[in-house]
Amino acid sequence: MTDEVILQVKDLRTYFHVDEGIVKAVDGVSFNLRKGETLGIVGESGSGKSVTNLSIINMIPNPPGRIAGGEVLFMGKDLLKMNIKQLREIRGNKISMIFQDPMTSLNPFLKISTQMVETIVLHQGLDKKAAKEKAIEMLKLAGIPAPEKRIDQYPHQFSGGMRQRVMIAMGLSCNPEILIADEPTSALDVTIQAQILDLMKDLTARLGTAVILITHSLGVVAGMCDNLCVMYAGRVVERGNTGDLFAEPKHPYTQGLIKSVPRLDQANNDRLNSIRGQPPNVIDLPDCCPFYPRCDKAMDVCKRKYPTTTEYGNGRAVACWLYTEAK
């Protein structure tokens, strides 16, 4: 990992217009990604993790969604201002994405070779023979046995874990600068999860690829990520170095998430901690802290307006009235 910032997300806002009102799925998200860094984004379902990353590569379906504001600067150029032709040169080439369900991401009617070769020919400018050789090489690196034979098979002939390995091989086949992994292990058993995560860590380190890892699992981010963003109701409520954030979580939501994970290094027979209540309905949210109904430390100001973000330096920041002087 270097200090070179290759992706800057500034005040990103993505809204969906539905019959009931406006869903502010992403509402002012900001973070930086450095070359070779692995950045984790965690939070409950519906917190805006996946929509944030779909917005980065401008893949929000319109209607009903639209990117309402903000900037996404990749190598200094705003992806949100690019036309379709310019975006196609970046998607799959400079920025690749692995989706959480490889069975729906891979075309069931096309052989693996067809799907991988097409991407490599389009972005790398190789002929079909050279592109197939590159695809076989990537499948081999991804741990697919007999890749020369299996590349001509269909997705249904692979297990779930092997399909995810194919997706990783496809995502890295063009040596992207950034790999976005949207819960890449959610549909896999724990043994295969560990293998896939080790594979991603090894390949991205070898290729120097920066990674944005979306997950529910704090155990995954603890072992994989250099830095971490915690999202709640479409906003980043805390971010910082993963080790620092685990050692001293500041936001009550982050504290609740960490306390809900069982500790194997402590003899504790008490019940696991849980965060009471349910995530908020993000349709027409009032301008206050959306976590206050579930927060044991809530104050009157939390019910009136959203807290400003307090910066601590070295990338550490938290959006909570407990750490804001001007109340």
Topology:
Blueprint: E1 5-18, E2 21-34, E3 38-42, H1 49-56, E4 65-74, E5 77-78, H2 84-90, E6 95-98, H3 102-105, H4 112-124, H5 128-141, H6 147-150, H7 160-172, E7 178-182, H8 190-207, E8 210-215, H9 218-224, E9 227-232, E10 235-241, H10 242-247, H11 252-259, E11 309-313, E12 316-319
Parallel strand pairs: 3-8, 3-9, 6-7, 7-8
Antiparallel strand pairs: 1-2, 1-4, 4-5, 9-10, 10-12, 11-12
Helix pairs in contact: 4-5, 5-7, 7-8
Question: Can you walk me through this structure?
Answer:
The chain has 327 residues and is of the alpha/beta class. It folds into two domains: 5-94 and 178-273, Rossmann fold (3-Layer(aba) Sandwich), CATH 3.40.50.300; 103-175, no CATH class. The chain contains eleven helices and twelve strands. It has helices spanning 49-56, 84-90, 102-105, 112-124, 128-141, 147-150, 160-172, 190-207, 218-224, 242-247, 252-259; strands at 5-18, 21-34, 38-42, 65-74, 77-78, 95-98, 178-182, 210-215, 227-232, 235-241, 309-313, 316-319. The strands form two sheets. It has an eight-stranded mixed beta sheet, sandwiched between helices. Strands 2-1-4-5 form a four-stranded antiparallel beta sheet. The longest helix is centred in the middle third of the chain and has 18 residues, at 190-207. The radius of gyration is 21 Å and the shape is globular. The mean pLDDT is 90.
